[in-house]
Design goal:
Layout: H1 2-33, E1 41-49, E2 52-60, E3 67-71, E4 95-99, H2 113-116, H3 122-139, E5 145-150, H4 152-163, E6 168-174, H5 182-196, H6 200-208, H7 221-233, H8 245-249, H9 259-277, E7 294-299, H10 307-316, E8 322-327, H11 334-337, H12 339-350
Parallel strand pairs: 3-4, 3-5, 5-6, 6-7, 7-8
Antiparallel strand pairs: 1-2, 2-4
Helix pairs in contact: 3-4, 5-6, 5-7
């Protein structure tokens, strides 16, 4: 009995020690990222968008720099809690806004889920984004901003740019979604890769979700997630890593999220993803033309939003200026996989068009 009690005490001490170390690491990251420049901006605050309060994080070394709104993907997978790992260099050149979309991330703990769930759909998220563009232009004293959409956020970001082009300098798609039936491409590619690698388990699991995607367009989330599990195994998530464990653990060191907000992420993201994916499928096609400059930043190995269909979509898209930029050793998160080259692309390709 004494031995059991001793073990319990030791385990408790170890947990307290780990928690203390984590808290200390977060404090160091927060201090390291602190903006000290006289004209800098650094704030996390609630804004009201179409009657719904949502969190944003605004950071930049010089408020005179152009504003860039990052539209996260998922659905419902906020990048605010992982931005600390890649965003700081951007803040020398841009004022970067991270936005937790309706009910996502920090918003989960303040939302009335029973009421908000009835308003949770693609159209309302786009409307929220347009309202946020208006808010940012007014509060940060800008005529236009840049939109960067990642993964599912690229669909939202493109729609915002299509509807209010007069307020958008440029659109940047990272892990760009397409109209080119990318899920069919993904499935066929995974079957090919698993056959080439004699991966019997992958073959079995992939064949068990056939037909993929479902012909009626209502592919269950469980099938989508299984396909992406194998996409990551074959370098299609984070190049050189067989899973997203690192990505999913980055929020644990976030200086912008509380411990309770971090703890709620897994449940809220899962719940919201299923709600959004099960919602109405109206207006799901991406634009065929935009009235603003367009940049695609694509990891060559991306299988979450496959690289080849994005190339085809880009070639068919019309815009006043288009540039397709490839990151040779990246997949779905090139801003983390090749952060130096990503920053150079932002500075050398996007920044010069801002007037």
């Amino acid at each position: 009995m004494k031995r059991i009690l001793l073990l319990l005490v030791i385990c408790s001490i170890q947990r307290i020690s780990i928690a203390a170390q984590t808290s200390s690491a977060i404090d160091l990251i927060r201090e390291f990222r602190k903006i000290h420049t006289p004209n800098g901006v650094e704030k996390t605050c609630l804004v009201e968008l179409n009657g719904d309060k949502q969190w944003i994080n605004v950071r930049g070394k010089d408020s005179n720099n152009p504003v860039m709104l990052f539209v996260h993907g998922g659905p419902a997978s906020p990048t605010m809690p992982i931005a600390w790992a890649y965003q700081s260099p951007w803040e020398d050149f841009f004022t970067v806004v991270q936005w937790d979309q309706r009910m996502a991330g920090k918003n989960w703990l303040i939302a009335d889920t029973s009421q908000a769930a009835t308003l949770l759909n693609f159209e309302n998220i786009v409307s929220d984004g347009i309202a946020l563009v208006d808010t940012l232009c007014k509060t940060l004293k800008k005529e236009k901003i840049i939109i960067m959409g990642h993964s599912f956020g690229s669909k939202i970001g493109m729609e915002i740019a299509k509807r209010v082009p007069e307020k958008i300098y440029a659109y940047i798609g990272v892990g760009q979604m397409t109209n080119m039936n990318p899920e069919k491409f993904l499935y066929e590619r995974l079957l090919q890769l698993s056959a080439e690698n004699a991966d019997s388990l992958a073959q079995k699991e992939l064949l068990n979700i056939a037909p993929y995607p479902n012909p009626n367009g209502s592919t269950p989330v469980r099938k989508l997630l299984l396909a992406r599990k194998w996409a990551r195994k074959y370098n299609g998530g984070w190049y050189g890593k067989p899973d997203f464990d690192l990505l999913f653990n980055l929020p644990s060191l976030s200086p912008d999220y509380t411990s309770s907000e971090i703890e709620s992420l897994g449940y809220s993201t899962s719940w919201l993803t299923r709600k959004i994916m099960a919602g109405p499928k109206k207006n799901t096609s991406l634009p065929e033309n935009l009235e603003v400059p367009v940049f695609f930043f694509m990891g060559k190995h991306d299988l979450h939003t496959p690289y080849e269909p994005s190339q085809i979509y880009f070639n068919q898209l019309t815009a006043p200026l288009k540039k397709f930029i490839t990151f040779e050793y990246s997949a779905h998160v090139p801003m983390m996989e090749e952060p130096g080259k990503f920053l150079l692309a932002l500075v050398n390709e996007v920044l010069p068009i801002i007037k």
